[in-house]
Amino acid sequence: MNAPLKTADLRASERFQMTAHQDGIAKGETLLAVENVSLSFGGVKAITNISFDIRKGEIRAIIGPNGAGKTSMLNVINGFYHPQEGTITYRGEKRSQMRSTDAARQGIARTFQNIALFKGMSTLDNIMTGRITLQKRNIFWQALWHGPAMKEDLEHREAVEHIIDFLEIQHIRKTPVGRLPYGLQKRVELGRALAAEPALLLLDEPMAGMNLEEKEDMSRFILDVNDQFGTTIALIEHDMGVVMDISDRVVVLDYGRKIGDGPPDEVSQNQDVIDAYLGVSHD
Amino acid sequence: MSPEFLYFIETVINGLMSGVMYSLVALGFVLIFKASGIFNFAQGVMALFAALTLVGLQTGQVPFAHLINAIFGTEIHHFGWELPAAVAIAGTLVVMVAFAWIFEKLVLKHLVNQEPIILFMATIGLAYFLEGFGDLMWGSDVKTLNVGIPSGGSFWWEDVTKTWAAEGSDYFGMYIDVLDVYAAVIAVILVIALTAFSQYTRTGRALRAVADDHQAAQSVGISLRSIWVIVWSIAGFVALVAGIMWGSKSGVQFSLSLIALKALPVLILGGFTSIPGAIIGGLIIGVGEKLAELYIGPLVGGAIENWFAYVVALVFLLFRPQGLFGEKIIERV
Amino acid sequence: MLYREAGDFKSTYAADQQTFPIRSERMLFWMAMAVAFIAMPLLLGAYPEGSTYWVKAILLPFLVWSMIALGLNILTGYCGQVSLGTGGFMAVGAFACYKLMTAFPDLNIVICIVLSGAVTAGVGVLFGLPSLRIKGFYLAVATLAAQFFLVWMFNKFAWFYNYSASGQITAPERTILGIAVTGPNSAPWATYLLALTLLFAFAWVARNLTRGRIGRSWMAMRDMDIAAEIMGVSPLQAKLSAFAVSSFYIGMGGAMFFSIYLGAAEVTEAFGIDKSFDALFMVIIGGLGSILGAFLGAGFIVLFPIFLTVVMRDGLGWPTATVEHFQIMIVGGLIIFLLIVEPHGLAQLWRLTKEKLRLWPFPY
Q1: Whole-prediction pTM value?
Q2: What is the ipTM of this complex?
């Protein structure tokens, strides 16, 4: 699967660091906190009064049965849904809602439960779109291309190539993503999110529908991202084995409420959590 | 009552009448959209084609006469017999059903899983094809269509309304075309029949199921393809009715296909999926257009009928993107 | 043999992302350009009597429509917003050009055309605003509002056509380096060269815009708008810039259509809704989201009726009306056929042909 790489290149991508979103928050301090957030659609309550925080540098898992409000929670964090109540504090700035383009500009990137790649574009172009917020040349420079716009584009191309190396997808660089198998599409989507050099990476079921081997690969990438780039990660996952292995802290949702929060082994002993997963009736 | 107020009422009534006509065309759009998710741009041309075929059958025209003459150097035009209106209508209906069947076989079948916008563009292609085909088959000259629906102003109504005006004012009564009244009545019957069909029959239920979810409908044993043939046949029938009404009113010619353009704002207003929306949208556009022409038209130089409906629909959309009767869309990722 | 890639290695990212990555293709392109820019004008200049037909009936319509198709392809092919208002935007370009030409007689015609594009870009943004709220064919219908409203406006307010009795606009004579390029005395070769130069320059710009950040943000908006927004692509910027750029091209196309190609125009006749459909067909047939597609589509729609007329009317002696009906029918049928077999149009067929050529004469 690995395309042969010159050693010099390999070293270069190992040295590659994500520096686009420096925020001066030390490892272990709170990067993002949601407080008393509630979200409803019409009369349907998706999230009820949830609070939790994500610390810089950790891998935070959000788990819960289907329909617990996990994806809605991610949507609130990156500004796609706007909660009716509560506040979101990101990098010390408190607000009642995020705007999705703002969230992207301030270093929140994500992947999606049902792959949301740009089907008509190649792997390379898909990952390049991840850097849109980092590219600054205006339309007039772009129209001329040769000169500043091209120079900028090539710099970003180099960064993207590091990510392509990192994810080991060199061989599909120019393939339209629509033609790729599911597992690779998931990986390209991770690449697109990584290309933004995010401070906070949201992963919505990164391993759904994968076989054991693919799950192991994906877990390794997630741990490597966290380790090599120091990226804070919040992920939704159903595979408890994976969650227990790779996450630092876990928050458990059920019917839009928080029923547990803490380190994996502690949460797995929590009676409410066990009930929720075994389907004890709510009344 | 003052003449001004009576003019106002007359405008509203005429607006309602033309609104019914718009609804009739819009109905064809809604039917196809609901059952197959296709925005059928060719609906107007289908009406034209139906009307052309009807006239052709009725007057005994030889199909493709121009082409045959051009190739073989002959001079044929008509068979020399005329068909009664009812027979010609039945014949046209057969043609429209055959058209639906062929279209499903040759086109729809192959476009099943394409994006809606590709399907939309395919129907623009269909509109062109059908227009060329219709002209080639029956000739592009303006034809008069007469299936026995009375037309012309109603003297009775004129006399009745004349008495409403205040004494001594020079008011001559309202003008209402009898044809419009028939059209309105027929449209109402058609809507009731279609609603009943889709609510109370087995096929109607299958139709609604397909509209909701193709795959789920297929999984319970509904044949997608026969449903499509049925829907396009019904749309062909609605097009025929619209073609008869508009054709009797203003002759059968190319401009008849442009009524589709009139119906589009109606759809935006009423939402693509709602039959009542098509009716009420049509009435709103019909009345709005006539009133605007009467009151706003003179201020800006007139002839605003062409775009006024669009602007109304557009402004409306900005506030309610899902249309009058559409449901609010919650986007998911 | 033409597409020999073997040994054509790329060692820099710049070499990897150029427009014609294969050396032989690059050479072929520049050779074609040399013919178009040097040999063709010389030939047209040498045979003035025959050149009028070629320029007026084939070359100019092709060049002008290519410009328009480029514009619509940016909006529809790259950004995914279907527009049926092309005719209206062409009219804006034409009338802006007319007003500029008559108000500032000393202004160079090239500047007039570019400024007309800029005016149209503004109008395009205005009519593009609904795209922020509505999608798909709702938007397509909304753009019809632009078509009908704009044509009505240019028809109704005499100021736009300088109160001329016929309601027509007529292009006055303008020269470049002393050679007439508009008006009745213009030399066919000069009009051709002017149109070609403009098209070449702006096709290059279109290529630049579509390969960088802006192009990617358009395509992201087209393929998955929600994901694009979450990646930080502002729908406002992406969609409105697509409307602006697209209208800029269509406006310039309209200006060229009127000033260089037709010479005189009446709005309802020259810029009706059929023009909107023609442009859309060009983009579909040529290939959505392809610069090359714009040229192929324009070429097809311009040449096809001429071809049919030559074969059916001149060859078989059929009446003109019958030929026209056939033409409409075949174009419509072709649209459907292409959408079924190759939704990416002629450009994709060309790409596939190239793939085959790479292996020729020894396929697997």
Answers
A1: 0.90
A2: 0.89
